[in-house]
Amino acid sequence: MNTKPIIALDFPGEKEVMGFLGQFEEKLFVKIGMELYMQEGPTIVRKVKEQGHDIFLDLKLHDIPNTVKSAMKGLAGLGVDLVNVHAAGGRMMMEGALEGLEAGTPAGAKRAALIAVTQLTSTTEQRMHDEQKVALSLKESVLHYAQLTKQAGLHGVVCSVHEAQAIREACGDDFLRVTPGIRMLGGEAHDQQRIATPDGAKKDGSSLIVVGRAITGAVNPVKAYQEVCNLWEAN
Ligand SMILES: O=c1ccn([C@@H]2O[C@H](COP(=O)(O)O)[C@@H](O)[C@H]2O)c(=O)[nH]1
């Protein structure tokens, strides 16, 4: 898998996305999430793919197993590289997602890697206790979801950098640890709670980093991306 930093294309529509991508000369690894997909649908995925960029389709599916299986079967035809579900949907749901992905991938095409979200990087241990009524520590909860995800046969998880090393030790190096919540040193955290720098992420066991506002909100996004790459690749 491409290990370039994944840029979160959290934009309201195609015009903004194409304006952003047009500033770059190289092929990127980008993330299309809910904000963009809800506006532009599969068309934007195909258009970004046509430009030669790798794509993480971050729709975080979470529903009954049959619904997720059918939805994933439809998404499989888009030719993306990475897709996801919520681990909280359970083992049967994740197995259904994998079956749907396998069934929907056209013959001869490469199947996307499937990962599951553990605890969102905007969550704190206190909020998890108060709002989800989970009695475990946050790290234990993330590890539990990672192990459940592995048992379901998926390829890895979305977690924060803070849990990446423990997941690597428990689930193996091949099991992907995809980590959002990446900020440059001293950068604004916004709504993120479990954050780390790109070099910290590499040192602490991330397989892939997801970076949104630190790049998309920069005065010079190409320069900001290069700085993220330099830190990520330095270690
Ligand atoms: O736990 C999660 C899962 C997904 N995300 C997504 O990653 C990006 C992060 O954007 P920033 O601007 O760098 O904060 C965003 O698209 C989220 O939907 C996450 O942050 N945490």
TrEMBL record:
CDD domains: OMP_decarboxylase_like. It comes from the Bacteria. Pathway: Pyrimidine metabolism; UMP biosynthesis via de novo pathway; UMP from orotate: step 2/2. The active site is at 58 (for ompdecase activity), 60 (proton donor), 60 (for ompdecase activity), 63 (for ompdecase activity). GO terms for cellular component: cytosol. Residues 4-228 form the Orotidine 5'-phosphate decarboxylase domain. It catalyses: orotidine 5'-phosphate + H(+) = UMP + CO2. The keyword Lyase applies. Keywords: Decarboxylase, Lyase, Pyrimidine biosynthesis. Pfam families: OMPdecase. One of its GO terms (biological process) is 'de novo' pyrimidine nucleobase biosynthetic process. It is an enzyme of class 4 (lyase). Substrate binds at residues 10, 31, 58-67, 121, 183, 192, 212-213. Its EC number is 4.1.1.23. InterPro entries: Aldolase_TIM, OMPdecase, OMPdecase_AS, OMPdecase_bac, OMPdeCOase_dom, RibuloseP-bd_barrel. One of its GO terms (molecular function) is orotidine-5'-phosphate decarboxylase activity. Homodimer. Catalyzes the decarboxylation of orotidine 5'-monophosphate (OMP) to uridine 5'-monophosphate (UMP). Belongs to the OMP decarboxylase family. Type 1 subfamily. HAMAP family: OMPdecase_type1_B. This is Orotidine 5'-phosphate decarboxylase. It comes from Solibacillus isronensis B3W22. The gene is pyrF.
